[in-house]
Amino acid sequence: MEHLIDIKSISKEEILNIINLAKEFKKGTKKSDVEKKTLSLMFYENSTRTRCSFEIAAQKLGMNIINFDASHSSLSKGESLKDTMENLYFLGVDAVVIRHSLSGIINNVMRLVKYPIHFVNGGDGTHAHPSQALLDFYTMLEKIGSVEGKKITIVGDVSHSRVAKSNISLLSKFGADINLCAPTYLQFENEQAFNVKYHNNVKEAIDGANVVMVLRVQNERHEKAGYPDSTEYKRMFEIDTNLLKQYAADDVILMHPGPANRNIEVSSELLDNRVGKTILEQAQNGVYVRMAILNTLLKGDK
Ligand code: CP
């Protein structure tokens, strides 16, 4: 693996290698192979979990970290991303984590850059968020052992979600029974593109589910402000303790990539109880999975 751009570009074996390495980092039985390598964090869109966990992961690996501030960089003078990356490489940067609002921008820059800097997609538009899908998979394996044949229901703004796309891509490789639940106007337009089951009714969607993954309504990506109406959305799709108890499997795990909008897509009470704690453990696993990603990409470099 040279880069991590999306899940479709990596094999099952590469995914399992990352998961196993993350387990070792979590147990403390594996040492870093990438001490003194340099990582640049380039976030053109806001982030808490992804940015902080990549930074903590790099610190634990003994790497040098550059927090690149796009607004104070020469990008504001018209320098291209390609020139920025090539200059960073010559300054000694080994890898960059990029988050950007434009879908596919990292693939484009990667094709243009002539030098062997490693690219990690930290979330690009509505396209992909591969490190999130890997940490979600890690958390599912930790909690339920395997995803094969398990009912995994993703509820929320599927159409704008890079997390949903990367999870579908990954979970499909491992034989999960993937269910999506959203109002029709927040489902994928091209439903045939994904081999999943679609639902409008949340009770039917989570019936017997082993994993319920809740997504935020991503208002910042909607063309029309104030749509959907949050009261209406909450009435139809909010996940709460009663709903999970009544319909999902007894040992269901609740997941959310964050940030969560309390009392809209998920009840505040559920977030703060034992079931909701998995969401914090999910974020914590992000550190170990991102250590595994960085170690895998950089360990072979001279
Ligand atoms: N899940 C996720 O990408 O969260 P952040 O936007 O806080 O990084």
Can you give a write-up of this model?
This protein has 302 residues and is an alpha/beta fold. The protein has two domains: 12-129 and 284-298, Rossmann fold; 130-283, Rossmann fold, CATH 3.40.50. Helices cover 40% and strands 15% of the residues. It has eleven helices and nine strands. The protein has helices at 12-27, 49-60, 81-91, 105-112, 130-144, 162-173, 202-206, 230-237, 241-247, 268-272, 277-298; strands at 38-43, 64-68, 95-100, 118-124, 151-155, 177-181, 197-199, 211-214, 253-255. The protein has a five-stranded parallel beta sheet. Strand 5, helix 6 and strand 6 (177-181) form a beta-alpha-beta unit. The chain is globular. The two termini are 15 Å apart. Phosphoric acid mono(formamide)ester (CP) is lined by residues 47-50, 123, 132, 257-259.
Compact overview of the structure:
This protein folds into two domains: 12-129 and 284-298, Rossmann fold (3-Layer(aba) Sandwich), CATH 3.40.50; 130-283, 3-Layer(aba) Sandwich (Rossmann fold), CATH 3.40.50.1370. The protein is 40% helix and 15% strand. It has helices at 12-27, 49-60, 81-91, 105-112, 130-144, 162-173, 202-206, 230-237, 241-247, 268-272, 277-298; strands spanning 38-43, 64-68, 95-100, 118-124, 151-155, 177-181, 197-199, 211-214, 253-255.
Protein topology:
Blueprint: H1 12-27, E1 38-43, H2 49-60, E2 64-68, H3 81-91, E3 95-100, H4 105-112, E4 118-124, H5 130-144, E5 151-155, H6 162-173, E6 177-181, E7 197-199, H7 202-206, E8 211-214, H8 230-237, H9 241-247, E9 253-255, H10 268-272, H11 277-298
Parallel strand pairs: 1-2, 1-3, 3-4, 5-6, 5-8, 6-7, 8-9
The protein binds phosphoric acid mono(formamide)ester (CP).
